[in-house]
Amino acid sequence: MIIEAAFVIGVVGLVFYSILRLLAPSPDQRPVSRAGQWVAVHYDVKDVTRVVLQRVSPTGAGVLDEHIVSTIRIDDPEYDAKFLGAMAAARERQALFEAEE
Asked: Taking the CA atoms of the chain, what radius of gyration do you get in angstroms?
């Protein structure tokens, strides 16, 4: 009798779990958090400067999203011009993302 009751409870739990999984949105369908702000930043990694656009949390403590705008080799003879152009492009993209919100 106890084994039958445990089996019935297990089956009911499994059916309930299956229904919840079917009704819940998948991870790629969940809404993206709109909290935070976009900032144009750059950093160096292994002799390459990355110019990126980051969405940071409202507190500024965490990066929520990142888009690479450009990568520039540090020893590139046209580094300054490419860097300034990449930062300008990042700021333009920042303005575009902010306008979409």
From this structure: 24
